[in-house]
Known about the structure:
By secondary structure, the chain is α+β, with helices and mostly antiparallel strands. Among the domains are: 100 residues, no CATH class; 101 residues, Distorted Sandwich (Coagulation Factor XIII, Chain A, domain 1), CATH 2.70.50.60. Helices cover 35% and strands 25% of the residues. A three-stranded antiparallel sheet has the order 2-1-5. Strands 4-3-6 form a three-stranded mixed sheet. A hairpin with a 2-residue loop joins strand 7 and strand 8. The radius of gyration is 60 Å and the shape is rod-shaped. The two termini are 105 Å apart.
Amino acid sequence: MAIVTRCPACDTVFRVTPQQLQARSGTVRCGRCLTVFDGFKTLSTAPSPEASETVPPGDGTPAAPTQEEAKSAGNTTGIAAAESAPPPAFELEPVSATELAAAAAAVSEPAAKSGAAEDARDFGPAPEQLTLEDHLYLEQSREARARRERLWGAGAALLMLTLAAQGIYLYRGEIVARYPGARPYFGRMCETLGCAVFLPQRPRAIAIEASDLQANDPARPGAIHLTTTIRNQATYDVGFPALDLVLTNTRDHTLARRIILPRDYLEPGRDAARGMPANAEMTINLDLDTGDLNPAGFRLDLLAAPVP
């Protein structure tokens, strides 16, 4: 940027340097109308041109005009003012309008380019103008997407309900065992679906409290009587277990084995589907015919009974 000052008499713009202004405390003379004025009062800045400025001859400080130069200018008043001015003043050469326009163009072109680049970086290209058909297409696309989302949501909900229904059906016995109050509802459900509610088999939750095997009649050594007491140690109802009876000889070798199902040892009229209540105890009595095996001992264990 160049430092310029303006003549208050003829409004001519002059290019000055700090050295020129400081040499005479800012007192300068207009090179056009020879008016002496304070250059600091009208000081401003202007874009400097690309071309180098012309440096005045000598030490860079222009000489004050002589009386002959003042006479050639035809302004005797200016000469008198110059002679009467206490300090000599610098005579300034005006800056042409062409130089100012060229300097402004040189400065404004890079600024415009940088401004355009900054706008492109910050804001990007202008959005494409959409027609009425494009807006209608976008609306239809949004409606189709919303419809697909609703269908997917309904399908997912249906799958979750189906999975829950399958879990309830498969684990209906567990649910009834944990929540006995739900038995009537599952009973009606099974009447509709043609199924049955069976309590879960938990043979390890049932303990054998006592067991005994005795001959009923000495004359018939093959006829024996089995007595055993079992207890449900669970806090919920469980299904009746199966009895695993093993007959052994005097060396504890297996002579025979038989799996006794609940229908074989339950009393007549007792519903096997009701199972053993929590912490309940029951005694089982069975008459068996061992033929000519003549067992000397036995082993008894509990197994999960097969569901009909």
